[in-house]
Amino acid sequence: MFRGRAADRVPALLGALALGLIAPLGTQVAAPAPEPAPVVVTPPTPTARPVVLTDLPVAGPEDRRVALTFDDGPDPQWTPQILDVLVKHGARATFCMVGSQMERHPEVVAKVVNAGMRICSHSHSHDERLPARDAATVTAELTDVATRVPGTPVTYFRAPGGNWDQQILDTAVAHGMQPLGWAIDPRDWKRPAADEIVANVEKHLHPGAVILLHDGGGSRVRTVEALDRLLPWLRSRGYVTDFP
């Protein structure tokens, strides 16, 4: 059957076949097993605790993360302007929204969510006497915001006026929301000059600081101006904005 040079190769072919180095004719050769997919480890979600968070848990002075937060919106005039400034500078922020305002301006809520920002509950009615209310009212006030953004996590609650009591702390935690305060309040709600807002933040800034600003509750033209100046200043000093 084999002649010439073909006959010379027969012993080598038979030896390779015996050792299993080649497969007999008609044998289906199995494809090599695919490499296992890399294991992606998702970090655990922080557990809410009944204490008011005022600073991010930074690793040290070189961990220069800070959190920008905006209260009392959404507002159809000022929230989009603040969003524009944040997007322009590539910054992150958390918007502590009031449910009654969300009800009036759902299109602004959508802008905030679609821009990749976070939503924090700031109650339904911004009732600064919330600690005096009964348990059912407190629960309804705290959980209202999340019902208006289905599919969007609402994992923080900020008490109106910063008025906390144990019932509010415990209710927030029971509904998966970390009580959120602030470390720096430039009191922009009093509408000081933009220079004053900027100077106040610069004076008290430190790694991990949660900064309180406002996008609702009246004219925020000075807050918008101050934010546009603060963000490049933060970057020049190595700070980055992050979520709480």
Write a short abstract of this structure.
This protein has 244 residues and is α/β, with parallel strands linked by helices.
Explain the layout of strands and helices.
Blueprint: H1 4-19, E1 65-71, H2 78-88, E2 94-97, H3 99-104, H4 106-114, E3 118-121, H5 135-147, E4 156-157, H6 166-174, E5 178-179, H7 194-204, E6 210-214, H8 221-236, E7 240-241
Parallel strand pairs: 1-2, 1-6, 1-7, 2-3, 4-5
What would you say this structure looks like, in words?
The protein is an alpha/beta fold and 244 residues long. The chain is built from eight helices and seven strands. The strands form two sheets. Strands 1, 2, 3, 6 and 7 form a five-stranded parallel β-sheet that branches. Helix 2 links the parallel strand 1 and strand 2 (94-97). Helix 5 (135-147) packs across helix 6 and helix 7 (194-204) packs parallel to helix 8 (221-236). It is globular, with a radius of gyration of 30 Å. The model is unreliable at 13-23 and 38-44 (pLDDT under 50).
Q: Structural class of the helix and strand makeup?
A: alpha/beta
How many β strands by DSSP?
7
Element-by-element helix/strand order: HEHEHHEHEHEHEHE
Helix content: 25-40%
Rounded to an integer in angstroms, the radius of gyration calculated over CA atoms is: 30 Å
Mean pLDDT level = 88
Flag low-confidence runs: 13-23, 38-44
Biggest beta sheet summary: 5 strands, parallel
Termini distance?
A: 80 Å
In terms of DSSP E residues, the strand content is 5-15%
Specify the overall morphology. globular
Number of helical elements: 8
